[in-house]
Amino acid sequence: MIIIKTIQTKVHIDDSVLLYSGDIDAVIMDNLKQRFEGYCYMSCLVLDILEIQQKSNFVFSRQRHDGSASCNVQFRVRGIVIKKHEMLHDCVVKKIDKDGHIICKNKYSAVYIRASKALQTIKQGQTIVALAGLVNYKLFKPAISVNALPFIPIIDKSSDVIYTVQVSNTTGIVNKMLAQMENEIKQNQSLDKDVYAFFLDLLYPYETKKRYDKDKASTKTLSQIASSTSGAKLNLSQPDWLPMDKPIVLSYGKVESEDVLGTDELKATGDGIVVSENYEAIMGYMVHKYIEHMVTIRKLCTTYSTMELVEANGNVWDIYKRHRR
Question: What is the SS3 assignment for 105?
């Protein structure tokens, strides 16, 4: 995930001539770029130094007599962070040691996967997908260190939660996210249809397709919810995405007792039926999750762009299918 972050540090200038160069900001920027770009610092991998926000006056060194000086600098960076269970694409297997542990790398991370009988079919040189576990940003290392899991299905437990929201169609941030979502869907329409259909089905984490009780809940797209009459209340639950290219959620007119959240005591009293939440927070979360889903499919389709490549890496997909629940 790309982030924008503010960092503070001290910049040392050893060559006193540079202090009088006429463009001290350029001197500081060059120093920052050499030190930080392409390296881990402050829990991210720094990609670019965007701007210098603030700097103090230079203070000349009292311990040295070469005219060197330093100043405190606050600057903004564009960087990468990896969150738990994030899919790591394009991991090339560099080594499989004698115990079966897998070492692989992609553009921004060095990945370690513990040995498992389920992974014995993976070969050196193969490009695989991994799921991030523990993440470590070792200071000034050129890659993020990740202890990863093999490509296995992860079920989102938040899909079991029912939220009550007050519909609002005037929220700018949600509308922007919906526009981004539609753009992602449009991009995926240009992918190879057979490859796209394969990964759309593969990423569904259950062995059998779940059936939803239409008497309890109706299906709505996120766009339909966003265009609902302002002020209406809805009970919404995000399902695990079905193998389809529409972002479908469930809308409950009435929540039955078996859907009540919480302990048996709460269910008996009806006090734990729903979680009342902010519309922008819930809609933003649901749209963001679906965008992540579509980006993952697109990256898989780009890496394995033909059915020949998909079939050649069938051992990887078999691992995923065996772990479906």
Answer: strand
